[in-house]
């Protein structure tokens, strides 16, 4: 307890009443300011980082053989094998096989499912184009 709390204090003709009450209000506002700063730091720094980490973990759990990926060193390759026990992945980079930690995968460019669907679509497009070209050749030969 402060000895001067609740007493009237006069210094050079100025009266300072209830000095303790002013100090209490000042300390409450300081505490509120600190709590507010911590809350802002959580919402602007920590929470987005947690969301990003969760997204990356979900992406790692969905990796499959044949997915085209980019590493954190910007190396592009296709997944040849995944070892979930050692948390490593082997990439086929145009015939060169490299082993990386799974955390080194920055993003998936194309999943194996998308690649297979794209291959089927391109095969059907090329078959359609081949049949159209042969019909044009037949029309040109008849003329």
Automatic annotation (TrEMBL):
It is a single-pass membrane protein. Belongs to the YajC family. GO terms for biological process: protein transport. Residues 114-143 are annotated as: Disordered. Residues 133-143 have a biased composition (Basic and acidic residues). This is Protein translocase subunit yajC. One of its GO terms (cellular component) is plasma membrane. Signal peptide: none annotated. The keyword Iron-sulfur does not apply. The chain crosses the membrane at residues 25-45. Keywords: Cell membrane, Membrane, Protein transport, Translocation, Transmembrane, Transmembrane helix, Transport. Coiled coil: none annotated. It is found in: Cell membrane. InterPro entries: Preprotein_translocase_YajC.
């Amino acid at each position: 307890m402060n000895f001067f709390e609740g007493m009237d204090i006069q210094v050079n003709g100025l009266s300072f009443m209830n000095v303790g009450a002013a100090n209490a209000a000042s300390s409450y506002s300081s505490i509120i300011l600190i709590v507010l700063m911590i809350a802002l730091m959580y919402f602007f720094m920590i929470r987005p980082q947690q969301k990003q980490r969760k997204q990356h973990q979900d992406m790692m759990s969905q990796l499959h053989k044949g997915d085209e990926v980019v590493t954190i060193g910007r190396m592009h390759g296709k997944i040849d094998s995944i070892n979930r026990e050692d948390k490593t992945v082997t990439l086929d980079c145009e015939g060169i096989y490299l082993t990386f930690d799974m955390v080194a995968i920055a993003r998936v460019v194309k999943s194996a499912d998308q690649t297979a669907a794209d291959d089927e679509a391109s095969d059907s497009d090329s078959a359609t184009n081949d049949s159209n070209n042969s019909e044009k050749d037949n029309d040109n030969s008849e003329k």
